[in-house]
Structures are given as C-alpha cells and as structure tokens.
Amino acid sequence: MVGEKSFTLLRNMGISKIGTLQQMEVFTMQKVLGENGINIWRKANGLDDSLVIPFREQKSMSKENTFQQDTIDMDVLRRTLISMVDTLAFDLRKDQKLTSCVTLKIRYSNFDTHTQQLQVGYTNSDRKLTEVVLSLLRNSIAAGC
What is the mean pLDDT of residues 19-34? Predict the structure, then answer.
C-alpha cells in the first residue's frame, strides 16, 4: 500500500518485506519518507488508529474478459459482450440493484485502452443494457478505436 516513488525508495534501501520495515527505526523511515514514512512504519507494525468501517455499499459492478488470442471478429465480440451483460443484469436483479451508467472498456494488445460511458435511466434490464453496450461498441468502431 505504498505509491510508486515510495516503493522505489524502499526497494533501493533493500526493503522488500514488511518484516524488514518492522525492524527499522521509525526515525529512519521519517528521514527518508517524511510523515508518510511514519505512517508506513506504523502500519507495518500493526499500529493504525483509523476507524473501522464495517460496511460500505457497493458502488459498481463489472465484468471483464481477456481473450487468449487477439480478435477482430465482431460476432465473437458481440456474443462476448452480450454474455457479460446478461451476467451483470442477472447480478443486479439478484441484488435488487439498478444502474444508471454503462461503461465499455476495450484494451488492445499494445495496452491502448479506450473507454466509453453512457448515462441511462435506472435499469437492470439485460435487453436495455445490451442495447446500450452494443451502441457503445458501434461508437468505438466508428471512432476508429
């Protein structure tokens, strides 16, 4: 639970395990990482005064699929998206939830990622959500994504 810069600093110091952090002097951590160093040291030693929040309502649901092999077969893409929407819509209904936002993320083999999002009226209808997702797919294709 450290950022990229802190991670690099810690690795350069030869620290790769929490046990090593636990054995360090808090002063050393403060000298290297400032206040954040103290926080990291405290958490590594099981010292955390933050409130425990026992329940937080889920804000989003998602499904992802990674193909074993890259594809430009639109029928495969459509069938995959429809299956994913069916599963999500079922989960929404099972949990008695509705959605008002649909997001389509496409990541290519070179890791370029294109995301489109559309606000919709509250729904958990697989038919409605499928229409929206396929529309987003058509828009992505039309935009050359």
Answer: 91
